[in-house]
Amino acid sequence: MIKLNCWEIKKCGREPNGKHIPDLGVCPVATDISSNGINSGKNAGRICWDVPHTLCEGKIHDDFSQKAFSCVSCEVFSRVRAEEGALNFSLLKIFHYSQPAELINNSDVHFDLRAQLPHLPQEIIITDSTGESGKYRRTGR
């Protein structure tokens, strides 16, 4: 199975040498080498929802909180999640590079999903690419 990157699925024209570069510039997803290989993608091509300044619904959004709900209903997100499967899918880059136990026990990491996604359920379970799971519960703060 050929796993396509977001620019190949959406045909946005913002990849290097793409037709919309003069108008919109090169998409940071296509040049984010730090994300190469996540969800089997080239650069951030299969974790585009976690990269700022991407084109979503005809607008460039600055961060995940601005585009979260459009991303989770996007064909790219759905396709990547289905193709990678629960054990290999990375939702966010931070979970790809860290074990959930480190995130829970590391007081230097402050990740407030409630502020990022106000309609988040009370509890979510996130499974990283190694198959490790972490349970995250909303607090009443």
Average pLDDT across residues? 75
Query: How many β-strands, per DSSP?
Result: 4
Fraction in beta strands: 5-15%
The chain-level structural class is alpha+beta
Residue runs with pLDDT of under 50 for 5 or more positions: 98-117
- The total count of helices amounts to 8
Structure description:
It contains 8 helices and 4 strands, in the order αααββαααααββ. By secondary structure, the protein is an alpha+beta fold. Strand 3 (123-127) and strand 4 form a beta hairpin. It starts with 5 loop residues before the first helix and ends with a strand. Residues 98-117 have low confidence and may be disordered. It is globular and about 40 Å long. It is 33% helix and 11% strand. It has one domain. The strands form 2 sheets. A two-stranded antiparallel ribbon has the order 1-2. The chain has a two-stranded antiparallel ribbon with strand order 3-4. The longest helix is centred in the middle third of the chain and has 10 residues, at 75-84.
Sequence-ordered SSE layout with sheet pairings:
Layout: H1 6-10, H2 21-24, H3 28-31, E1 54-56, E2 59-61, H4 64-72, H5 75-84, H6 93-97, H7 100-105, H8 113-116, E3 123-127, E4 133-137
Antiparallel strand pairs: 1-2, 3-4
Question: What would you say about this model in short?
Answer:
The chain is an alpha+beta fold and 141 residues long. It contains 8 helices and 4 strands. 33% of the residues lie in helices and 11% in strands.
Core attributes:
141 residues; alpha+beta; two-stranded antiparallel sheet; 8 helices; 33% helix; 11% strand
